[in-house]
Amino acid sequence: MSQATQHAVPTGSWNADTVHSTVGFAVPYLMGTFQGTFSEFEARLSDGALSGSAAVGSVEVKDPNLSTHLQSPDFFDAERFPRLSFEANDISRSGDDLTIGGELTLKGHTEPVEIQGHVNDPGPDPYGGERFGLQLETKVDRTKFGLNWNNPLPSGDPALANEVTIIVDLQLVKES
Amino acid sequence: MKVLGISGSLRRNSHNTRLLRAAGEIVEEHGGEFEVFDGLKAIPPYDEDDDGPQSPPAVERLRRAIAGADAVLFATPEYNSSIPGVLKNAVDWVSRPLATSPLRNKPVAVIGASTGMFGAVWAQAELRKVLAATGARVTEVELAVGHAHEHLDEAGHPTDPAQEEALYDSVLVLLGELQNVEVAA
User: Fold this and answer.
1) Which CATH number fits domain B2-184: 3.40.50.300, 3.40.50.360, 3.40.50.1260, 3.40.50.1400?
2) Do the beta carbons of residue B77 and residue B84 sit within 8 Å?
3) Which residue range forms the structural domain that includes residue A137?
4) Which one has a higher pLDDT value, B185 or A77?
5) B104 to A69: CB separation less than 8 angstroms, yes or no
6) N or C: fewer beta carbons within 10 Å in chain B?
7) Considering only CB atoms, which chain A residues are within 8 Å of B136?
8) Which of A65, A73, A149 sits opposite B98 (nearest CB)?
9) Stated pTM of the model
10) Is pLDDT above 60 for A109?
């Protein structure tokens, strides 16, 4: 049956349409969840291997002072480690759900990560190309990557959680 | 390779200023230039109304001194378990605006001395936190000279050999950070 030969992700080479894709993160902060995105990134799927990177200096949050602090050695250290990157070639599929094993490199530290994902199968787009969608999410401990900043709340509890959710929503366009 | 020293004490015969000068000798032994900033007392209290393209000259002088140095070594006493106001005030001035502060990505180290027994450890910890918030590259060095009136010689060197070694190590870690920067560039 054809299901037996179905690939987890489309074959061939595909590149992210960065206008219609998002790479971001969410982390519990104070009494809610703080979110940010990276405006400069790239992602590619080629021969079953998924890779991508983002310029940490392009982090976008709603306050320029916070953006500057996030680029400092307290957090991403954009001067010394300008990009975060990701690589994976262990991708399995069940229905439209994906499980991806890969490695995330951030601030000079490389750690294994397991990603949960969802795939929207390829179809023609309005621009004459072909594209498919990937929604990916994983949780990482930021302290494993040397992002250790914190401040105590009045209660004494830390203001910022260590567990960060990385959220990626990609539209990948087939290479012509 | 130029290192700027900033003492959190204004007193003429300050233990921290002498400790900085001793650190400066070590910088010079390793081929670097060292200068102690002497204009902290002239810096007015921070007032956003006075901040902008035309900051007070004393503030501009500190900004230029930090911008012109490859690294900054702070030595601080401790007032009421924290950073002396004059030093915190100076850091607040030069931290703004954050995106263009001369402290941003600047390798810095904090050491300290006090006449009490703990060597300004809490002031040092708070100063490291403040400097990190400005975007400075805070190196992990430790030197807390307690009972400084008894434990520093005339030139500002710790009389305890272990603390003198810690002073050397602190300077070497800071200078090592500069080499990292040069390699990365």
Assistant:
1) 3.40.50.360
2) yes
3) 12-174
4) A77
5) no
6) C
7) 72-73
8) A65
9) 0.86
10) yes
Q: Around A27, how many Cα atoms within 13 Å sit in the side-chain half-sphere?
A: 20
Query: With 70 as the cut, is the pLDDT of residue A1 above it?
Result: no
Chain B residue closest in CA terms to A71: B135
Residue A128 pLDDT exceeds 90: yes
ipTM score of complex: 0.78
User: Considering CB atoms only, which of B98, B132, B138 is closest to A68?
Assistant: B98
Lowest mean pLDDT among A81-90, A135-144, B50-59, B173-182: B173-182
Residue A68 has phi, psi (to 5 degrees) of -65, -40
Q: Which residue has the tokens 């976008």?
A: A60
Contact between A116 and A91 (Cβ < 8 Å): no
For residue A2, tell me if it sits in a domain. Answer: no
A34-86: pLDDT as tens digits: 999 999 999 999 999 999 999 999 999 998 889 999 999 999 999 999 999 99
Q: Is the peptide bond before B97 cis (omega within 30 degrees of 0)?
A: yes
Q: How much is the CA Rg of chain A, to the nearest whole Å? A: 17
DSSP element (H, E) containing B81: none
How many CB pairs below 8 Å do chains A and B form together? 33
Once rounded to an integer, what is the mean pLDDT over residues B112-123?
A: 95
